[in-house]
Fe-S-cluster-containing dehydrogenase component (Fonticella tunisiensis), 165 residues
Amino acid sequence: MNGRDSVGKTLIISPEKCTGCRTCEVACSFRKTDSFNPQNSAVTVYQYDEAAISIPVMCMQCEDPKCMKVCTTGAIYKDENDTVLIDRKKCIGCKLCIIACHFGNISYNYEQKTLVKCDLCGGDPQCAKLCPSGTIQFKEATSAQLSKKKALAEKFKSLLEEVEK
């Protein structure tokens, strides 16, 4: 691959563009639960006041998802587009996937008793569609963009591990 080869559509995040408006959280929660409640969003905007940056974070659609490995019922699976999904009929709500996710990108909606995780809105992600600054984009990714995304995820993971120490 030469870095320009298309590898499918994915969410591309440009943290330097984020204004911290949290439109992505509200759009996602409405799509998922018909309510404007960021607690029910599969996107979380982390705000780092000291550095004056905001970063939207959602499921990384990992190549080798730890959440899928720990799921005892097989409720977490990958579809034909490599999107990591949850079969709500199989899920028993044990929350092992929440613990296994290195990035904290799965949560639990106690009101609806369901897991909340990005599923790319079936190919029409509202977070990207409604992001006013263009921070979140859903587009054909190149292998170079995916490598950059993986490097950013690893850096974020190591920062989270440092904070937990």
About this structure: The radius of gyration is 16 Å. Residues 1-6 have pLDDT under 50 and may be disordered. The first strand starts at residue 6 and ends at 13.
